[in-house]
Specification:
By secondary structure, this protein is of the alpha+beta class. It has helices at residues 14-23, 43-49, 51-56, 74-86, 114-126, 136-141, 149-158, 179-193, 227-234, and strands at residues 2-7, 60-66, 91-93, 96-101, 104-109, 171-176, 201-203, 205-211, 219-225. The strands form three sheets. A four-stranded antiparallel sheet has the order 2-1-8-9. A three-stranded antiparallel sheet has the order 4-5-6. A two-stranded antiparallel ribbon has the order 3-7. A hairpin with a 7-residue loop joins strand 8 and strand 9 (219-225). It is globular and about 50 Å long.
């Protein structure tokens, strides 16, 4: 069993619902139709290009997948995440943008957010005691020869290359798309998500995702509203 701490929108959120249809899967466990043809792409092509992110569900990584450290339990992790979320305020992204990162398409903040970067850094530090050290094969899966010195240091110290100064909030929509198909894919995503890409996004929750066994789909194990978000919803 591996765990990860991700941001994913509330299960009723319009962006999250559309992203589930795009990926053809819900990490919350509800039934979602398989990917359909979009624009110049057939249903089979969309299914192929979304296969990698489909396994993880629609999310942004804050604490990358990890095995529990010796002496730590799932209940303790859930309790710690609930307490952490209660103590934090939501962060608002004014507008999303579509970006191609290392060949794959993702939704990213249109403008940098120091508040969001701080939240992500605090999650990495706060939950490090729950993370077991990486096994050699886990390090190899990160292709360490292709990492910068900073990223390699992060991998060994924090279990993930893209933390702190190397962090970039992103919600992945595809696997790597060849350059020849990138423009078509960008048009298909713009068409499918439409004006939702222009709406603000509130980072108002944290979710514990679980991978029952290596290679299995990740699913939401527990979902925690950040303190201010809970107050607004109950007001």
């Amino acid at each position: 069993m591996r765990y990860a701490i991700y941001f994913t929108p509330d299960k009723h959120d319009p962006l999250g619902r559309v992203a589930e249809r795009w990926l053809g899967r819900s990490a919350f466990g509800r039934e979602v139709p398989p990917p359909s043809g979009i624009g110049a792409f057939s249903a089979a092509e969309i299914a192929f290009h979304t296969a990698a992110p489909r396994r993880y569900g629609f999310h942004a990584t804050l604490k990358a997948p990890f095995h529990l450290a010796e002496g730590k339990t799932e209940d303790a992790l859930i309790g710690a995440l609930a307490a952490f979320a209660e103590s934090r305020e939501p962060v608002c992204i004014e507008r999303l943008a579509l970006a191609r990162l290392d060949g794959f398409f993702a939704l990213v903040p249109a403008e940098p957010s120091a508040e969001l970067d701080r939240l992500a850094a605090d999650v990495v530090r706060e939950f490090e005691p729950f993370r077991a050290p990486l096994e050699p094969e886990e390090i190899e899966r990160r292709s360490p020869d292709n990492l910068t010195p900073e990223q390699l240091k992060n991998l060994h110290q924090w279990g993930y290359p893209h933390v702190f100064d190397a962090f970039r909030f992103h919600m992945t929509l595809t696997g790597r798309v060849p350059a020849a198909e990138a423009q078509r894919m960008e048009r298909a995503i713009d068409f499918f998500f439409g004006p939702l890409l222009l709406e603000p996004l509130e980072i108002g929750s944290l979710a514990l995702f679980a991978e029952p066994e290596l290679g299995a789909p990740f699913h939401v194990k527990s979902f925690h509203a950040l303190g201010g978000a809970r107050e607004r919803k109950s007001a």
